[in-house]
TrEMBL record:
Cellular component annotations (GO), alphabetically ordered: cytoplasm
Subunit-level organization: Homodimer.
Reaction(s) catalysed (UniProt annotation): glycyl-tRNA(Ala) + H2O = tRNA(Ala) + glycine + H(+); a D-aminoacyl-tRNA + H2O = a tRNA + a D-alpha-amino acid + H(+)
An example Gene Ontology molecular-function term: Gly-tRNA(Ala) deacylase activity
Sequence motif Gly-cisPro motif, important for rejection of L-amino acids, residues: 138-139
NCBIfam families noted in UniProt: D-aminoacyl-tRNA deacylase (TIGR00256)
Enzyme class: hydrolase
Key words, A-Z: Cytoplasm, Hydrolase, RNA-binding, tRNA-binding
Organism from which the protein derives: Candidatus Gottesmanbacteria bacterium RBG_16_37_8
The record's note on its domains: A Gly-cisPro motif from one monomer fits into the active site of the other monomer to allow specific chiral rejection of L-amino acids.
InterPro entries: Daa-tRNA_deacyls_DTD (IPR003732), DTD-like_sf (IPR023509)
Protein name: D-aminoacyl-tRNA deacylase
Family statement: Belongs to the DTD family.
């Protein structure tokens, strides 16, 4: 599982030209699910997300978590985070989980965020064509990859 986390002053997602969801200060997260992911990876990545200390304290130092600042989170499904570019010019997405598995794990990740005490957690629409807008603050962009935690055999 990969979570590309962007610290933002605001973020929103539009579907079919209409506002679907929006947040104020917090994180816009693009979440990709790998074909071998399980609920365990979703839980670990969610815990890392809410405890990640990249929010600014009073002195401007990245020292606080989203929980500390009562920030908000917008999560967008993003299968293209598992693009394989080793051969050719067109990316392969075979490493991404099948939609029915990916959606279940995406929802599990979102539920874990919601149950962790984050003040607001909203999403895009899984599988929809979306337009995501955000104002990256810093800019701060962090990738959390479950592969870094060696939770499964490859």
């Amino acid at each position: 599982m990969r979570a590309l986390i962007q610290r933002v002053t605001w973020g929103k997602v539009n579907i079919s030209g209409k506002l679907f969801n929006e947040i104020k200060e917090g994180f816009v997260i693009l979440l990709g699910v790998w074909q071998k992911d399980s609920e365990k990876e979703a839980e670990i990545i969610a815990d890392k997300t809410v405890n990640l200390r990249v929010m600014s304290d009073k002195t401007g130092k990245m020292n606080l978590s989203i929980l500390d600042t009562k920030g908000e989170i917008l999560v967008i499904s993003q299968f293209t985070l598992y693009a394989d570019l080793k051969t050719g010019r067109r990316p392969s997405f075979l490493k991404s989980a099948k939609p029915e598995i990916a959606e279940k794990l995406y929802n599990h990740y979102v539920d874990k965020l919601k149950n962790s005490g984050v003040s607001k957690v909203v999403t895009g629409q899984f599988g929809a064509y979306m337009q995501v807008e955000l104002n990256n603050d810093g800019p701060v962009t962090i990738m959390i990859d479950s592969d870094d935690f060696k939770l499964f055999d490859t």
